[in-house]
Write a structure and sequence with these properties.
The chain has 19 helices and ten strands. It has 445 residues and is α+β, with helices and mostly antiparallel strands. It starts with 10 loop residues before the first helix and ends in a 5-residue tail after the last helix.
């Protein structure tokens, strides 16, 4: 699951756009029938015509109200406003969804729409299995209403046909969770506001005798590492997402990684960073007081509501470094299959999912809206989203490239080797940059 200004699309405009009736085609006419009779015949045909049924695939959570809200609130309202269209929603495991969609597309029978991880969009576009939806009526209004970070995930600039290949659906990012009791015991008045303060606090908060670590870093992947790298002023690729050399291995990125390596060596970072079978994730270790700080998304709050007793904690923006306070844009986009059976109806439903009604309903379940004007409504309904909404204003998108997954793997592998002491930071990042160049350019490893 993963990871943000001016909005021009008003609710009244959305309402007018969504009020457009579904056009049900009626073929032929009967000569000699009066206008009134023809109208009556058309109405009868519309009533007896078989509704279009859209197939929608997702990874919505079945354990909370995410999927039930989507089915019982979102779909129900859409079907009421569009009586000629039905929506059949199917839920799959995250690891299964992408390969299943690709296999179905290859077989010529994909679902009409899929709620895609934002990082899958470039790959799907490069393989030609999803539509360029930038010219769909209504997309311009959605585009102008969407936060820059989430919008960037829908745009594929490389390849033979650059364009917008998805509708932004939901977004999220990570912020700093901190344990108030542990901070008080260490004599620290509040959460750190700078990276240097965060690292100093991590050392003060660590107590090896209690298996208590000042900081939890939930893995070596880019989703978890990017806030530390970007906020330090470092990076992963150039702006065109076609090269990592000179960015992933520059002195700023090297220094950012070195800071984390030093914290790990000092014993101030928990087992989540190195990973492995015995590793304890931040979401698991934080409620136990094993980690005094870690970063996570808004979904963690709902998880902690079920934990009892749960220590008092706060949520703060990610600490600032030379690059500012920068977290990672996460979330999902809606893609329309090129081989779908009902493309026009699918596009209509995708547009509906970007309406204020749908966005607000799902935001109440933790799926933050991609649209700027919904932030105030989200925070009013769900106050803890305030920090995440603030964080999204500076959050960045990871490489929008079909080679992202391979690049992420190359980075994570080399960082693991660095943490294990097998290579130096500089050597490891030089290798990661060289391998990432090949991934970004579509060269198989």
């Amino acid at each position: 699951m993963q990871p943000a200004q001016s909005r021009l699309w008003t609710r009244s405009k959305a309402a007018r756009r969504l009020a457009v009736a579904v056009v049900v085609g009626v073929t032929g006419s009967v000569a000699g029938i009066t206008g009134i009779a023809a109208s009556s015949a058309s109405a009868k045909t519309a009533k007896t015509a078989k509704p279009v049924t859209l197939q929608f695939w997702s990874t919505y959570d079945l354990k909370d109200k995410e999927e039930s809200t989507f089915v019982n609130v979102i779909i129900k309202k859409f079907e009421k406003e569009n009586p000629g269209i039905k929506v059949q929603a199917s839920v799959y495991l995250y690891a299964d969804l992408l390969p299943k969609f690709l296999a179905a597309s290859a077989a010529g029978d994909p679902p009409d729409l899929m709620r895609s991880d934002i990082q899958w969009v470039p790959q799907l576009a490069s393989e030609g299995v999803i539509k360029n939806v930038g010219e769909v009526p209504g997309f311009a209004a959605i585009k102008s209403a969407t936060l820059p970070g989430p919008l960037a995930t829908t745009h594929v600039a490389t390849g033979e046909a650059p364009g917008y290949y998805a509708f932004p659906d939901d977004t999220n990012t990570q912020a700093l969770f901190w344990n108030k009791a542990l901070f008080a015991a260490a004599g620290i008045s509040g959460p750190p506001t700078t990276l240097s303060q965060m690292y100093a606090d991590a050392a003060k908060l660590t107590d090896a005798s209690k298996q208590q670590y000042g900081l939890g870093v939930d893995g070596t992947d880019m989703w978890n590492m990017a806030p530390y790298i970007w906020s330090s002023g470092g990076g992963f690729t150039n702006a065109k997402y076609n090269s990592a050399t000179g960015v992933m291995n520059n002195s700023t990125t090297v220094n950012a990684v070195t800071s984390l390596v030093n914290l790990l060596k000092a014993g101030d970072i928990g087992s989540d960073f190195l990973g492995g079978a015995s590793a304890v994730s931040g979401e698991e270790g934080f409620p136990k007081g094993e980690y005094a700080m870690y970063i996570d998304g808004p979904w963690a709050v709902d998880t902690y509501k079920a934990d009892s007793p749960m220590p008092a904690y706060g949520i703060a923006p990610f600490p600032k470094g030379a690059g500012g306070s920068v977290s990672t844009v996460g979330g999902e986009d809606i893609v329309v299959a090129n081989g779908g059976h009902h493309i026009t109806a699918a596009e209509k439903f995708a547009e509906f999912l970007d309406s204020p009604f749908a966005q607000d309903a799902m935001a109440a379940q933790g799926d933050m809206s991609t649209e700027t004007t919904d932030a105030a409504a989200e925070v009013k309904t769900t106050p803890y989203l305030k920090v995440f909404a603030q964080q999204l204003e500076t959050a960045k998108v990871r490489a929008v490239s079909a080679g992202y997954s391979q690049m992420d793997s190359d980075w994570s592998t080399e960082l693991g080797a660095i943490l294990a002491g097998k290579v130096s930071v500089s050597a490891g990042l030089n290798t990661a940059a060289a391998e990432s160049n090949g991934a970004l350019r579509g060269i198989a490893p």
